[in-house]
Fold:
Amino acid sequence: MTTSAVPAANAVSPSELQHLIALQPQLRILDVRTPGEFQGNHIPGSFNVPLGTLGEHVNDLADVDHPIALICQSGGRATKACAQFEAAGKHSLHILAGGMAAWTATGGETTSSAVERWVLDRQVRFVAGLLVVLGVALGQFFAPMVWLAGAVGFGLAFSAVTNTCAMGTMLAKLPYNSGPSCNIDQVLIDFRNGLAR
Structure:
């Protein structure tokens, strides 16, 4: 999970993306969040290829002769996916500025499952906050435990400076965040033909 700034050349606002969807039926919407996040809510007609899976298949996806709009929760993972696509030679790319958070805040249409899941950045905030409280509380009885709070603070600062999130990466691998696994072969076929499920 990251919250980096979206490159201006590729950024589209939620209203601009809605306009692109209406005017360009060949546009492919690629959501790079975890399967659990995708199952929680996503833009109708979008495809899910988690960022962790994208790298080994980016060349196949980049070969599709259609523009691609990249989506994640806040824009950071989509920005990383954009860099991978550009390295693979794909340049007709858009990134939803503000991600699904901005899309839903502006009333964009979503599809969701009956199972409600917290998005990854909310999970990171919860776990980080819990660890800080735990470190401070236990530090009252065993002084070295306050270092847990300090370590979490350092980790959050490091995450911001390096635009990475080790905690988010670890949380993304939990069973809670997995939905139906990404059948990449079927996704590639559907992606080429524009048949989102």
The first strand starts at residue 11 and ends at 12. The beta strands are 11-12, 28-31, 47-48, 68-71, 93-96. Confidence is low (pLDDT under 50) at residues 1-6.
